[in-house]
Amino acid sequence: MTNDKSIDFYFDYASPYAYLANHSVRKEFPSEKITYKPIYLRGLEAFRVAMPFVPNKLTNMLVDLQRCADIQGLPFHIPSQLPINGIYACRGALFTLKQGGFEKYHQLMFSAAWENNIDISSKDCVIDIAVSAGLDKEAFTTGIDSLKIKSALKEQTAIAEKAGLFGVPSFIVGGELFWGADRIEHVKRKLTA
Fold first, then answer.
1. Are 87 and 16 in contact (CB under 8 A)?
2. Dist. CA 167–CA 49, nearest whole Å
3. CA gap 134, 23 in Å, rounded
């Protein structure tokens, strides 16, 4: 956790609601310190227990996502490959947070998954996106395959779960957990309290 006036933003590129929240966070908190915390959604016990979605819930969720994107004025495309496995993309986020290039990588990865129908479950696609973000292909590939990055993602996911996270997007502000893309107003109130 970080200080009381900063936001820890937990995400996985596999989550369409994290995609929506990412745009909201950037718009609503342009001057607040945001600490990006990629986690592996499938690594959370609470998430694994809740999968797979029942058909009616999945149908409603897809309609809701399009509705939310429309309200926010965001491009949105339901990927042909669902569910998405964000493990390589999240490892890449950790790598870029440590080595540089995160901002461009981060935006391109969310866009690839939720705007451009690129299969980010594919390691090769993730590498291609990293290269298009200006990252060195060999260094990036070595990085996301390294035990250090793999362990860091497992550890960050475990720490998040111990902090009470059960899904993404999640935010921790001043030790308080907020879950969901629709909790941005709650985060604002906490920051100004």
1. no
2. 11
3. 22
Could you tell me the residue ranges of all domains in the chain? 6-74+81-192
| Cβ contact 83:53 at 8 Å | no
| Cβ(139)–Cβ(104) below 8 Å | no
Q: d(Cα 57, Cα 65) in Å, to the nearest integer?
A: 12
Query: What does the alpha-carbon distance between residue 65 and residue 13 come to, in Å, rounded to a whole number?
Result: 15
CB 190, CB 176: distance < 8 Å: yes
The CATH code that applies to domain 6-74+81-192 is: 3.40.30.10
Distance CA(71)–CA(67), nearest Å, equals: 6
Do residues 99 and 28 lie in contact, with contact meaning Cβ atoms separated by under 8 Å? no
Residue 49: the pLDDT is 57
**Alpha-carbon dihedral sign for residues 113, 90, 41, 17:** negative
| Average pLDDT of span 159-173 | 94
CA distance linking residue 80 with residue 97, whole number of Å = 29
Among residues 155, 173, 95, 45, which one has the least CA distance to residue 109? 95
Provide the mean pLDDT of the chain.
Answer: 92
pLDDT at 53: 64
Give the SS3 label for residue 139. helix
For 143-154, give one letter per residue: b (16+ CB within 10 A) or e.
bbeeeebeebbe
pTM for the structure as a whole? 0.92
